[in-house]
Design brief:
Largest sheet: 5 strands, parallel
Bound molecules: magnesium ion
Radius of gyration: 22 Å
Strand content: 5-15%
Number of helices: 15
């Protein structure tokens, strides 16, 4: 099932959010990400190059958090919605027309243009390929399992594609797979489940897999940094009714640098812990391994800084163009506007 189920709307928004885009292969995700990046023309854009001052970073972070609390109370990401809210707050105009479209494209473009490669935890580049090589024959399938803004702006697939981590792992796998087998190997052994709602996708996956193998059982191992996601998985398994007896679920809780130890969650304090065969060979045996992206592969603290900078500098960039201001003046202008907004 490799498909992008909905035609991508050029520069517009997806009006009907119930028509979610499912991307079930990395190749489809790359195609999708490239199309969205092409629409935004970010290669040509050239963003203002400056670091946020301490004061700008504090104010921009507050503004980002304020927006997040309003626009994603249920945790669903929708960056075009943010763009229209920023536009209303900031320029006090209705989010429509050519000027707004130009701003939105700047805003989404700056988000897409973040340094996603630099956000990957450094040790992932060496440990993850080694991990795949070590357990490849034991694991049934490794699946990237990630939630984010897929349908509204395409940021999540673009983020994963631009990080380069999947390509990096594929290249490593191909090196040691016997010649001529790599294509089938990657098809059989790796999966890609990136969606606006990763839980709904998992629910579908369980349903499909259980009915494809009416007698067999499924073992799901989830590597995630959010403890509440394990409870969500348990609820999804519960939903399978009588079939739930055929599902085994084992969590691995990624708590990097926290020094926490919860035995029943198989806590890891570093990605390197996964290389410990005494701990993990049995767990991974014959498992579908779901690997979360944000917080497991990529550092959420870096991502937050990236969002804050992209928010702020897209406003500066637009203010500088629209009001013909020098960069310094545009930065002061944006800072002032944001402060006023937050004080109200
Ligand atoms: Mg996460």
């Amino acid at each position: 099932m490799n498909y992008v189920s909905k035609r991508i709307k050029m520069k517009g928004e997806v009006d009907n959010m119930s028509e979610k885009i499912n991307i079930d292969s990395f190749a489809a995700a790359v195609k999708y990400a490239k199309e969205r990046l092409g629409e935004l023309g970010i290669e040509e854009k050239g963003k203002p190059d400056f670091e946020l001052s301490e004061e700008e970073a504090v104010v921009a972070k507050k503004y980002y958090e304020y927006m997040r609390d309003i626009y994603e109370p249920a945790g669903e990401r929708d960056f075009p919605k943010y763009a229209s809210a920023v536009w209303r707050d900031f320029f006090q105009k209705k989010p429509e027309g050519g000027e707004y479209e130009a701003f939105k494209s700047e805003f989404i473009g700056q988000l897409m243009d973040m340094d996603f490669q630099g956000m990957v935890y450094p040790e992932i580049w060496t440990v993850f390929p080694e991990f795949l090589e070590k357990y490849a024959d034991k694991i049934k399938k490794v699946m990237l399992w990630s939630i984010g803004d897929v349908t509204p702006s395409g940021l999540q697939p673009a983020k994963i594609y631009r990080s380069g981590i999947i390509d990096h792992c594929y290249k490593h796998l191909i090196e040691y797979i016997p010649e001529g087998e790599s294509r089938d190997y990657i098809k059989d052994k790796t999966g890609y489940m990136v969606a606006d709602d990763k839980f709904q996708r998992l629910d579908q996956f369980l349903k499909d897999t259980l009915s494809d193998h009416p007698e067999g059982s499924i073992k799901i191992v989830a590597l995630d940094d959010a403890k509440h996601n394990f409870e969500a998985i348990e609820r999804i398994i519960e939903k399978q009714g009588a079939k739930k007896e055929r599902i085994e679920f084992i969590p691995i809780w990624a708590q990097y640098g926290q020094n926490l130890k919860e035995e029943e969650l198989n806590t890891i304090n570093s990605i390197t812990d996964l290389l410990d065969e005494k701990r993990f060979a049995g767990i991974l045996e014959n498992a579908y391994l779901l690997v979360d992206y944000d917080g497991v592969i990529s550092d959420n603290k870096q991502l937050l800084l990236g969002y804050i900078k992209a928010f702020f500098s897209s406003m500066v960039s637009y203010a500088a163009k629209q009001k013909q201001m020098p960069l310094d003046q545009a930065r002061r202008f944006v800072l002032e506007r944001l402060r006023n907004k937050l004080e109200r």
